[in-house]
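Good morning C.,

I know you're traveling, so I'll keep this short. The sequence:
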Amino acid sequence: MTIFLGLIIPFIGTTAGAACVLFMRNELKPLIQKALLGFAAGVMVAASVWSLLIPAMDMSEHMGKFAFIPAAVGFLLGIGFLLLLDKTIPHMHIGSDETEGVKCSLKKSTMLVLAVTIHNIPEGISSGAVFAGLLTNNANVTLAGAFTLAIGIAIQNLPEGFIVSLPIRSERGRGKAFFYGMMSGIVEPIAGGITVLLAAYITPVLPYLLAFAAGAMIYVVVEELVPESAEGEHSNIGTIGFAIGFVLMMILDVALG
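The tokens, ready to paste straight into the viewer:
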């Protein structure tokens, strides 16, 4: 039950964010959207460092001065994995009319959801990897630390679920906008659950897996969230949002982890 709760928390964050579309009458102001995107980016970067990369290196202390190898290799593999998804899965970023990935005839709303779904996969893997470490009694993973990561991801999923649902509302209505926004996050507990089920097999490569999730999350931040938060006027709002998100996640991880 504890593991299930930990894996479902990020999905609850996405659902709660998407539910805002049921009550909001107006479109989200660009300044607020920039701040929320920057905030999500800050949370993801801090989570990648404190909850994933540092534990990955701590687990590799027995390698001495080469303890960085699992973190470095896993990080680059995570970057490569998201790059592959980005090139193969058809999707469209918020605020853009250009499709990415393979050419297809999917509706804009579907491709917007796919864009968010792509970067929810590493978030699910990261939660699953941490809870897998908990199941295998890894000394570098604590219950508080695992839940801190899950809560941090849920916090950044709140604005994400809301932002992805808004453009769908005009095309499909409030109900479907909520449903699509919510379902963009369902991949997180699925990816996390699969990772936990493979816990017995991934224990030897757990440092690589944690760093893999970090690399994938950083790819999303650099390729999508930061450019969208800095586009156009008042890019400093996105930077302020980033700083707040980073500091909040850092405090949560250090204080609770």
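Safe travels,
E.
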